[in-house]
Amino acid sequence: MLTVKDKKFYLNGEEFKIQSGSFHYFRALPEYWEDILRKIKAAGLNTVETYTCWNMHEPHKGEFNFSGMLDLEKFIQLAHKVGLKMIIRTGPYICAEWENGGLPSWLLKKEYNTRLRCCTEPYLTHLKDWFNVLLPKIKPYLEENGGPVIALAVENEYGSFGDDFEYLKVVEKIYKDAGMNCLYIAADGNKRYHLSTGKSGDHIVHGMDFGGVGSKESFAVADEFDETAPYFVVEYWAGNFTNWGFDECTHIPDEVVRESMENYVDMGASFNIYMVFGGTNFGFTNGAQGALSWMRDAYNPVVTSYDYDAAISEWGGYTQRYFDIKNAMERDHGKADIAVPSSPTLQNIGTVKLTESGDFFENLHIGRNYKSVTVESMEEYDQIGGYIMYSKTMTYDAELNIIKLVGLHDRAHVFVNGELVATRFRGFDESIIEYPRYFKAGDKIDILVENMGRICYGEDMYFGDRKGITGAIIMTHKKGNEVRNPGKVIFNWDVNCFELDNVDKVNFEEKAPSKYPAFFKGTFKTDSKESCFVHFDNFRKGVIFVNGFNLGRYWERGPLEALYIPGAILKEENEIVIFETDGVKGDFSVEISNISGIPNHHPEIMVD
User: Fold this and answer.
1) What is the pLDDT of residue 292?
2) Which residue among the candidates 49, 157, 380, 591 is catalytic per the annotation?
């Protein structure tokens, strides 16, 4: 077992420095897991760290999925095969710039009436139910049972969230009662603010999360809380994530990472590089940031790529950062015992014309329909991600021409009689929409709302980042230049939930769309399984599917310029479907090439 003595880690009695890299199995296709793990091993690292994502494994209460990209046991087995130890951060909260910080969206339903990440019911009951499924899958792979798992995390960055020490003790007790006999760790920021409430006792090893170079100063702060704990950086940020609307994708100077790695080697410190491989927020899995001091807006969704400026790129290539890490490891303990695997090759397919389209309003059958007296959030309709539409046909004439969206989460298109009258984004005067005349009987109002990712960090999570219209839809009118208050709450809506997991059911025709939103479809051929990137220059906002696989969101707002297509999903005959909400700005075509969508990415270093 991994133990602690005299500020050092010991594995089965021998001194052991954790030299690790983060790789989230749920951000890459399983066809690539072993290759990436071998690249981590070839860099000279001895451990891989991963989170588990409760929200993906239990998308609906009592329904569990451990297959495909969620086959945790296969991932652990491959790490063991390659010769890597493993740290698993089971949360239940993980942050990770992941949807809702890894917590299931169904926890936010009104019927549960619970608060998250504290000693409340029924949250604790659901948490225990989840761990009763998860932990038995991990237990056979603990180091004491001959497996690679040397440590588990108790919660995650709790010092940034709360001070319910009893809750942390409950999580720890669940582990112990399940027989999870291994070292327990906590991960928090490197300030007294974080470390003061991040763990429930000194028997848990406290590591820190930080970037930059200042490791010595950070370790000095850690010593104030536990002089016996080894120097351990659970997350050394050798890169960072990117939000939509930022000027460019994140880039950390190579010299900063080089100096940090040299510091860790010289100090004999243990570390985990976050991320050594970042991967992709496929589908609707990206998280979002709330109102943080260093953010521009009150709500900041994360882009589809989670490349993270990492040593191993989103598509499995190498950057200079990889070889800087490898050089530091060789200086510490010599060369790795396996060679660096060859670089992946990428393919260039060219222009793909989208020759068919389908009007969104003529394909409402792909959604789930409800009659709802009140306007409710997605969670009340058991919807996880995608889009939700609230529709109302007026049955009376009234002096109403102002629509207020109370609690818009996150982006809305408002239609009257099928014509777009407004687009609103959370935090940008989303509440007031004026129509040029009074509504009358027979007018149909449709409000299509996109969930752009639940907030994954900070105090906002306490309140729950529900999606759709989280308050009410209110109508009133203007008297002169002033909006009349109070307004009327509008009841009795048709609600359609579009998770877009069935785009194969869209009806397409060989014609241009007459209005938006709209679906587009095209086909392309390839006899290669090499990966590539679809560039969406002609489109504005939406989602792209290849062979039914949801690649994720695109947005002309940038800075991401293309979406990654894993070669493993390609066939000889391929279908591409785009759901576009805002309208095109060019012809109906995309470019599929070997050029990534990260404009300032490190130059790739090829290995034969």
Assistant:
1) 61
2) 157
Contact predicate 470/464, CB 8 Å:
no
DSSP lists the bridge partners of residue 571 as: none
Q: Which two structure tokens, joined as six digits, stand for 486?
A: 């109070």
User: In the predicted model, is pLDDT for residue 238 greater than 50?
Assistant: yes
For residue 608 the two structure tokens come to 């034969």
pLDDT of residue 293: 45
Q: Are 169 and 119 in contact (CB under 8 A)?
A: no
Helix axes 33-42 and 72-82, enclosed angle (nearest 10): 40
Tokens read off for 76: 């652990």
**Amino acid in position 48:** V
Compute φ and ψ for 124, nearest 5 degrees: -65, -35
| Per-state percent for the chain, helix, strand, coil, to nearest 5 | 25, 30, 45
DSSP sequence for 81-132: HHT-EEEEE--S---TTBGGGG--GGGGSTTT---SSSS-TTHHHHHHHHHH
pLDDT per position as a tens digit, 183-225: 999 999 999 999 999 998 888 999 999 998 767 788 888 888 8
HSE-CB for 271 with a 13 A CA cutoff:
27
Percentage of the chain modeled with pLDDT above 70? 98
The tokens 């900063």 sit on which residue?
256
The whole-angstrom separation of Cα 594 and Cα 534 is: 9
pTM of structure: 0.97
Is pLDDT of 331 > 70? Answer: yes
Write the pLDDT tens digit of every residue in 374-403.
999 999 999 999 999 999 999 999 899 999
CA distance 302 to 555: 11
pLDDT (average), residues 405-426: 96
Burial of 220 (0-12, 13-18, 19+ CB in 10 A): exposed
User: Of 350-364, 474-488, 551-565, which range is least confident?
Assistant: 474-488
342-370 burial: b if 16+ Cβ within 10 Å, else e: ebbebbebeebebbbbbbbbebeebbeeb
Which pLDDT score, from 0 to 100, does residue 212 have?
85
Can 157 be counted among the known catalytic residues?
Answer: yes
Q: What is the DSSP letter of 192?
A: H
- Nearest to 343, CA basis, from 36, 42, 39, 606: 606
What is d(CA 302, CA 250) in angstroms, rounded to the nearest whole number? Answer: 12
pLDDT for 428 equals 66
Cβ atoms of 235 and 272 within 8 Å: the answer is yes
> Where residue 297 falls among pLDDT bands split at 50, 70, 90?
low
Q: Hey, which residues does 446 pair with through a beta bridge?
A: 391, 415
Burial 5-26 (b: 16+ CB within 10 A, else e): eeeebebeeeebbbbbbbbbbb
User: Does 235 qualify as catalytic in the annotation?
Assistant: yes
- Assess whether pLDDT exceeds 70 at residue 429: no
Candidate list 49, 97, 155, 235, residue with the active-site label: 235
**CA distance to 232, 273, 310, per residue, from 265 (Å):** 12, 13, 20
Alpha carbon distance 608, 606 (integer Å)? 7
8 Å CB contact between 90 and 154: no
